[in-house]
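DATA SHEET
Item: assembly model
Revision: 1
Owner: S.N.
Input lines:
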Amino acid sequence: MSEIVNLDEVRQRIRNLDSVPIVPAILRPLLNQLNRPPEDVKIGSLVELVACENSLAAKCLQMANSPLFGRAKPVNTIRGAVIALGIQRLHAILLSACMIDVFRTANGDIDVTVFWEHSFACALVAQQFARKINHPEPEKAHLAGLLHDLGLILSLVIFPEQLRNAITASKNKNIPLEVAERETYGYSHCETGAVAAQEWRLPKEAAEVIRYHHTDDFSDHDDLVSIVHLSDRLCQLGGLGYGYPLMIEVDMLKDPAWEALLTHHPDLRKLDLARFTFELETYFVEVKKMVAVLFRV
Amino acid sequence: MADFGFAQAPALDPAATAHLMRIRDLVYQVAGIFQADSRLNFLRDRCERRMKIVGTVTLRDYYQYLTTSPDRGGELHQLLNEITIGETCFFRNEPQLNAFRQVVIPQTIQSKQRLPFKHLRIWSAGCSTGEEPYTLAMLLLEDSNTVLRGCTFEILATDLNDRSLEKAKAGIYDDYALRNLSPVLKMKYMRPRAERFEVIESVKAKVSFSRCNLLDDSRMVFMKAMDVIMCCNVLIYFEGAAKRRVISHFYNNLNPGGYFYLGYSESLFGFNDDFRLVHFPGTTAYRKPERNLEAGTR
């Protein structure tokens, strides 16, 4: 049994993370932008922010040129990349790029890229899912998908030993990681992620998704929580989970998140889930390439 | 999946890509087999093979041919042959077999807990030259002392083609058909014969081969009480009402809670509303609901 850590200690350790270089410098102003309505965001200041950190600029250019965004002509300037990616997606990419820099160091024997591949895959799937059911803001689904497992990535840094034990238990017992986490150290990445979301003043919807994406009752939550929960499952089952398969059978249509979504999105009934599942194969190939780029630059 | 090695194909112009997508959608709508974007080069290669034979130059012309020529049905059949060719081998679809062995079989046995005689009935429909039913027999024999302790099982394997069935009964294969078979299982369940390998008797004894036309209603009603039906790359050759009829036979022949497996990237969407789509790691299947409408999921 691992040591149980309380959430106040988690909060304290997150605050101590500020001593890690680059995060406060880039992340704080970024988050300030993120909390504004899109029409108030100044493209110029975003471009400046990106330009002041070479590795970020390179990442943005590579992303903007990724086939995932289907551009016919290559993007050569930071300004071009910012416009091509769009504000929401840019925020998501910059945020994750900053966090990758923080978290790449403290991983021990756990491969952090696995978590990022899962997060990026979930972001893409959530966005596509949102589009298919005519959700008004698929970009928000992207951001929420990207950040939904923030708690896990954080746990890798602040208590890697406990997380490692939870991963082992999840693998050996064939149980979901969040259940294994609760058994191992008393709470899951939903709770640690919620503390981080609060500390870093993440957008309201993203924070709600981080906190509740493994709940049993989705009826009182934003639809984004259901969308990310289902996308999370599709990624896990599609092979971009946490690096090991859970041998389970899932009937998506009986998932409480599916039922909750149906009440607001009747178009869900028309979704060809089999085809959507087959389509994901392509995204997953691209996601792996993209994460490799993020970690190389 | 195999690496088809077409990644180097020169890029298509947007108009040609649009026609390729149209062909992809046509194949999916009519046959129910989907080619993801990552397989579009593969689809294009297969279309180009057919284009040489039917004498069309552009993908646009070929799409026209597939939709308006008097031989469109026959041509779609030929294209489907190209798409699925060479897929038959032992242990063909690993995620599907993993789900079969680790989830489907244990769950099915569990559902028979209260029965005095626990017997599994599995049907490989469209078994071709026998690789699939023999693979299933090997997997089940592997678990006969663990999950399957106290259970008996039988595998019915049917096909329309007599020549395929003869080959299946003989059970003699070359290295290519055995490329996915692990050395341990090969040693255990195959014996060398001339330059090739033959399936051993204890495996053959578990599989009974017979000829069956899936459109033959009088025959289909006798294939009752199946726990699992595998029907890979077969339904794609049926269209419209015939396809619906075959699927409903499969549905009726399954026990409540039974599983229906299709081939890689095959779907029942638009053809049947009774089956439930279920997901496993890396694969999907369909399931007949339990009698009490509580198909066991977790």
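QC remark: The radius of gyration of chain B is 20 Å.
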